[in-house]
TrEMBL record:
Uppermost EC category: hydrolase
Pfam family, one: DUF3458
Function: Aminopeptidase N is involved in the degradation of intracellular peptides generated by protein breakdown during normal growth as well as in response to nutrient starvation.
Any one biological process term the GO annotation gives: proteolysis
Keywords noted in UniProt: Aminopeptidase, Hydrolase, Metal-binding, Metalloprotease, Protease, Zinc
Protein family: Belongs to the peptidase M1 family.
Enzyme Commission numbers on file: 3.4.11.2
Lineage per the UniProt record: Bacteria, Pseudomonadati, Pseudomonadota, Gammaproteobacteria, Litorivivens
Protein's name according to its UniProt entry: Aminopeptidase N
Source organism (scientific name): Litorivivens lipolytica
C-alpha cells in the first residue's frame, strides 16, 4: 500500500492562503500530440497571511514544466523545487507576475480530470483539484481570480472554442488554425474554470431575466444529438424563472452555455457560464429516454444552474465546506422538481435514496459528518452524505424557520457573502441572524456523523383527555466519534381521530393565532428523552409522525398493522400515507424472511392483499400514489432494517410476497393495465402521464411473475408497439427477469440491433442485463465486458455493467461462492490506474462488508485485502480500502 503519499488533511489545520492571484491569463495551444499551457498570474502576498515571508508553494500534478519566470526573470532550476504535487519557489517579491508554460497530454488522460479528450472533443473537469493537472496554480477554492482565456486549435477539428464568460475576440491563424479569446468578469476559484474545443453543433434560445437582461442560451452537442436538446433547454428556462421567483436570484451574464460529453466522471459540472454535462444528464427524447431519464435531466440542469448562486457567486472556503454548496443546491433542485412535477413522488424517491444509500454510508467505514473533519482524497467525499444528507439539513432549517424567514435568511446569506469563499457556519449564522432562531444545538447536524435513532411511544389518558408522546433519541458511534450529543430534531406531526385530523393543543404552548389550521405542528426534539403532552384530545388518536420525513432519522413507533392500514387511508400527509404502506410491508416481509431462514412455509399477510385490492379498485386515488404504495419495500431498504443482512432470504421473501400479490390480484392488475394502456395524445414527460405509466408498468411487472402465456403476450406487444422508451424498457426488464428464455434472447438481440447507434440506450441495455436477478447473471456480465459496445474507459458503461451488477443486484453480487466479490476486486484493480475516482466509487458495496453474514464477511474482506496488497494504489482507492479494513 502507498501509505507514504496517503496523508490526511484536517479542517482544524486550515490557514488562509499566503498568496493571492488577482488576475489569471491562460493561453492554450492545442495540438494533436500535446497541449501547451502558457499562464500569466498577477500575484501578491495575502495581507491576512500569518507568515509574511512564506515561500510560494504552487499546486501541480503530472506536469512537464517548459518555462518559469517571475517579473520576466527566468527562474532557474536552483530557484525552485518540485516534488510530489507541488512546486516551491523560495524567494519571491511581495507582488509580482508569474509566468509559466506547461506541456500536457490530454489524449492520454484517462482520469477525466484536468484537460482530457472525450472522443474527438477536448474538455476540462477541474472540481475538486483537477486544475493542477493543467498548470501550476494555487488550486484551492479560497483563491479567486479574474480569468482571460485564449484558445488556439485546428479550425477543422475544433471549430468550436469555448471558455467561461464572454467571447471577446476571434482570429484566424496560420496553418489552418484559429483562436478565440474569452473573458469572465466574475472572480472565481480554479475549480470553476472550463475549456471546450471540438466539432460541435448547438441548439440556441434566449431568456429575459426579471430586470430585462437578455441571455443567450446554447446547448452544444454532437450533430447526431441535436434532436435531443429540447427538454434540457426547457428545463433550463424553467430553472431560471424558478430561481427568480422563489429565491429572487437573477442570472448575471449575457451568455449561458451547456456542453454534452460522453466521458464524464459525474453527472455534470457548474463551471461559470460553461456547464459541462455527462450526455446522460442532458440528452433526452421520447424515443430514447425513459421518464426517469427526463426527470434526471430536468433535475441536473436545474442543479447546475442553481449553483451559479449557491456555489459560484458564493463559494466554499475549503473542501470541508463542500456541503455548503452541494447540500443547499440539492435542496434547491429538489424543491424545483417538486414544483415542476409531483411533490410527494419526488419526496418518496429522495427519501428512498437517503434511507438506503446514505444511512448505509453513515453506518459504514466511510461515515463522515456533513462537514467532514478530515480526508485523504477529496474526490471520495462527493458522497450521499454531503449531497443528500446535506440537503436534508438545509430542509430542516427550512422547516424550523418556515418559508418566509428561510427566504430572509437566504437573501441575507447571498447579500452578505457575494463574491466570497465561505463556510457552513456562515450559512447557519445568516439563517440565525435573519430569523432570530437559535440554531446552536442544530449545528451538531454539521459536525456529528451517524443516523440518529428516535424511539417514540404514545399514551392516551381517557380520563384527563391527554395524549402524551415520549421520544428517546440516540446516535450510534462512527469512526472517530465514539460519543454523540443529542440533536435538535424537527418532528412535523399531527394526530388522527376517527373523523379526521384533531386540533392540537400542546401543553405549555399558546395556540398559534396565525394558523387557522391547528391540526399539524413541528415538535422540537432536543433532549435525549423528551415528552410532549397534548390536551383536550377527545379520543385515542393515531399519531402521524415525521411528516414529509421532516428529519433524516430512523423513527421507531410500535404501530399495529391495523393502525398502519388506517394511516394508509386517512393520513392527510401524502408522504406518511406511503410510509404507512412501507412499514406494513416491512412487517410482512420480516415475517417471511424469518420463515425462510427457518425453512418454514408461511403465507403473506392477507391484509397486504386486501390493501392492494382496495388501492387498485379505488379510482379516486392519485395513480402515482397507488403505484408507490403497491411497491413493496426494496431489498436495499430491508437490508437497512434487518442486520446482519441475509441477502438471499430477503430476496426470496420479497419474491414470494410479489408472487402472492400477483396471484391474488391478477384480475385487478389485468384490468388496471388495460385501462391505463389507453393514453390520450402524444408522449409527454408530465407528472400525470408519468404516474399513469408507472402504475401501468408496475401492473405489468406483477403480471409477468405469473409466468403465463397471456402475460407474455401482453409484454411482447408492449415491447414491440410502444412509441416511447419508458414502456419499452419496462417490458424488456419484465421479460429479462422472467423464465421465457427464447423470447428473452431474441428480444435482447433485437433491442441491440435497433439501438446500437444510441450509446445511452445501449447503456440501459447493459444495465437491464446486469441487474437480472436470475442465476447466471455474473457470467453474462463477464461476457458483456467483452461486448464491442463496452468500453472500460467510459464511466457510464462501467456504471451500467459493473456498477449496476455490484450495487443494484444484491442476490447475484452476494452469490455464496464469493465470485461476485472477486469480480469487483479485479475491476477495481484494473480501474485503479485508469480512473481512480471511478475505481474508488465502485468499491462502495465491498466496503460495507461488516453488515453481512459471517461467511460473506470473510469472502468480502479477503477481496479488500487483495486490493490492499496491490503495489501502486491511487490515493482514492487507498483511502476507501484502508478505512474499510481498519478496526
Ligand atoms: N459540482 C458537481 C455537482 O454539481 C460535481 C462534480 C462534477 C464533480 N464532476 C465532478 C465532483 C468530478 C468531483 C469530480 O454536483
Ligand atoms: Zn452540485
Amino acid at each position: 500500500m502507498r501509505d507514504a503519499q496517503a496523508t490526511t488533511i484536517y479542517l482544524k489545520d486550515y490557514q488562509v492562503p499566503d498568496f493571492l492571484i488577482d488576475r489569471t491569463a491562460l493561453h492554450f495551444e492545442i495540438f494533436d500530440s500535446h497541449t501547451l499551457v502558457h499562464s500569466t498570474l498577477a500575484m501578491r502576498r495575502n495581507p491576512a497571511a500569518k507568515n509574511a515571508s512564506a515561500p510560494l508553494v504552487l499546486d501541480g500534478c503530472e506536469l512537464e514544466l517548459e518555462a518559469l519566470s517571475i517579473d520576466d526573470q527566468a527562474v532557474t532550476e536552483s530557484g525552485y523545487e518540485s516534488a510530489g504535487e507541488s512546486l516551491t519557489i523560495h524567494t519571491v517579491p511581495d507582488s509580482f507576475t508569474l509566468r509559466c508554460t506547461t506541456r500536457i497530454y490530454p489524449q492520454n488522460n484517462t482520469s477525466l480530470e484536468g484537460l482530457y479528450k472525450s472522443s474527438t472533443m477536448y474538455c476540462t473537469q477541474c472540481e475538486a483539484e483537477g486544475f493542477r493537472k493543467i498548470t501550476y496554480f494555487l488550486d484551492r477554492p479560497d483563491v479567486m481570480s479574474v480569468y482571460t482565456v485564449t484558445v488556439d486549435a485546428d479550425s477543422k477539428r475544433c471549430p468550436v472554442l469555448l471558455s467561461n464568460g464572454n467571447l471577446v475576440s476571434t482570429e484566424t491563424l496560420e496553418g489552418g488554425r484559429h483562436r478565440a479569446v474569452w473573458e469572465d468578469p466574475h472572480k472565481k476559484p480554479a475549480y470553476l474554470f472550463a475549456l471546450v474545443a471540438g466539432d460541435l453543433e448547438r441548439v440556441s434560445d434566449t431568456f429575459t431575466t426579471m430586470n430585462g437582461r437578455k441571455v443567450d442560451l446554447h446547448i452544444y452537442v454532437e450533430e447526431k444529438d441535436l434532436d435531443k436538446c429540447d427538454h434540457a433547454m426547457l428545463s433550463l428556462k424553467n430553472a431560471m424563472t424558478w430561481d427568480e421567483e422563489v429565491y429572487g436570484r437573477e442570472y448575471d451574464l449575457d451568455i449561458f452555455n451547456i456542453v454534452a460529453v460522453d466521458d464524464f466522471n459525474m453527472g455534470a459540472m457548474e463551471n461559470k457560464s460553461l456547464n459541462i454535462f455527462n450526455t446522460s444528464c442532458v440528452l433526452a427524447s421520447p424515443g430514447t429516454t425513459t421518464d426517469a431519464g427526463f426527470q434526471r435531466v430536468e433535475g441536473v440542469v436545474a442543479h447546475e444552474y442553481f449553483h451559479n448562486w449557491s456555489g459560484n457567486r458564493v463559494t466554499c472556503r475549503d473542501w470541508f465546506q463542500l456541503s455548503l454548496k452541494e447540500g443547499f443546491t440539492v435542496f434547491r433542485d429538489a424543491e424545483f422538481s417538486a414544483d415542476m412535477g409531483s411533490r410527494v413522488v419526488k419526496r418518496v424517491e429522495d427519501v428512498g435514496l437517503l434511507r438506503t444509500a446514505q444511512f448505509a454510508e453513515d453506518a459504514g467505514p466511510m461515515a463522515h459528518p456533513v462537514r467532514p473533519d478530515s480526508y485523504m482524497e477529496i474526490s471520495n467525499f462527493y458522497t450521499v452524505t454531503i449531497y443528500e444528507k446535506g440537503a436534508e439539513v438545509v430542509r430542516m432549517i427550512h422547516t424550523l424557520l418556515g418559508p418566509e424567514l428561510f427566504r430572509k435568511g437566504s437573501d441575507l446569506y447571498f447579500d452578505r457573502f457575494d463574491g466570497q469563499a465561505v463556510t457552513c457556519e456562515d450559512f447557519v449564522k445568516a439563517m440565525e441572524d435573519a430569523s432570530g432562531m437559535d440554531l446552536g444545538q442544530f449545528r451538531l447536524w454539521y459536525s456529528q456523523a451517524g443516523t440518529p435513532q428516535v424511539d417514540a411511544r404514545g399514551e392516551y389518558d381517557a380520563e384527563a383527555n391527554t395524549y402524551t408522546l415520549t421520544f428517546k433519541q440516540s446516535c450510534p458511534k462512527t469512526p472517530g466519534q465514539p460519543q454523540k450529543e443529542p440533536f435538535h430534531i424537527p418532528i412535523a406531526m399531527g394526530l388522527l381521530g376517527d373523523a379526521g385530523a384533531l386540533r392540537l393543543e400542546l401543553k405549555g404552548e399558546a395556540p398559534n393565532p396565525d394558523t387557522a389550521d391547528n391540526t399539524h405542528t413541528v415538535l422540537h426534539l432536543k433532549q435525549a428523552e423528551q415528552q410532549f403532552v397534548f390536551e383536550n384530545v377527545p379520543e385515542k388518536p393515531v399519531p402521524s409522525l415525521l411528516r414529509g420525513f421532516s428529519a433524516p432519522v430512523k423513527l421507531q413507533f410500535d404501530y399495529s398493522r391495523d393502525e398502519l392500514l388506517f394511516l394508509m387511508q386517512h393520513d392527510d400527509d401524502g408522504f406518511n400515507r406511503w410510509e404507512a404502506a412501507q412499514q406494513l410491508g416491512v412487517l410482512a416481509l420480516k415475517e417471511l424472511v424469518a420463515a425462510h431462514q427457518n425453512n418454514e412455509v408461511r403465507a403473506l399477510d392477507e391484509r397486504l392483499i386486501t390493501a392492494g385490492r382496495n388501492l387498485l379498485n379505488d379510482d379516486s386515488l392519485d395513480l402515482a400514489m397507488v403505484a408507490l404504495m403497491l411497491t413493496l419495500p426494496t431489498e436495499a431498504y430491508m437490508a437497512e432494517v434487518m442486520q446482519p443482512v441475509d441477502v438471499l432470504s430477503i430476496h426470496a421473501a420479497r419474491m414470494q410476497a410479489r408472487l402472492e400479490l400477483a396471484t391474488a390480484l391478477k384480475e385487478e392488475f389485468t384490468n388496471t393495465y388495460r385501462t391505463l394502456s389507453r393514453r390520450q395524445g402524444d408522449y409527454q414527460p408530465s407528472a400525470e402521464q408519468i404516474a399513469q405509466r408507472s402504475l401501468k408498468n408496475l401492473c405489468l411487472q406483477y403480471l409477468m411473475l405469473l409466468n403465463d402465456e397471456h402475460s407474455l403476450q401482453v409484454c411482447m406487444e408492449q415491447l414491440d408497439t410502444s412509441d416511447n422508451m419508458t414502456d419499452r424498457i419496462a417490458a424488456l426488464v419484465a421479460l429479462v427477469n422472467s423464465e421465457h428464455e427464447p423470447q428473452k434472447a431474441l428480444a435482447l438481440q433485437k433491442f441491440y440491433q435497433d439501438w446500437q447507434h444510441e450509446p445511452l440506450v445501449i447503456n440501459q441495455w447493459f444495465q437491464i442485463q446486469a441487474t437480472s436477478h436470475l442465476p447466471g447473471t455474473l457470467k453474462r456480465v463477464q461476457e458483456l465486458l467483452n461486448h464491442p459496445a463496452f468500453e472500460i474507459r467510459n464511466p457510464n458503461k462501467v456504471r451500467a455493467v459493473i456498477g449496476a451488477f455490484c450495487g443494484q443486484n444484491a442476490v447475484n453480487f452476494h452469490q455464496t461462492d464469493g465470485a461476485g466479490y472477486r469480480f469487483l476486486a479485479d475491476r477495481v484493480i484494473e480501474l485503479n490506474t485508469l480512473n481512480p475516482q471511478i475505481a474508488s466509487r465502485l468499491l462502495g458495496p465491498l466496503s460495507k462488508w461488516r453488515k453481512y453474514l459471517p461467511e460473506q464477511q470473510a469472502l468480502m474482506k479477503a477481496e479488500l485485502e487483495r486490493i490492499a496488497a496491490e503495489p501502486k494504489l491511487s490515493r482514492d482507492v487507498f483511502e476507501v480500502v484502508s478505512k474499510s479494513l481498519a478496526d
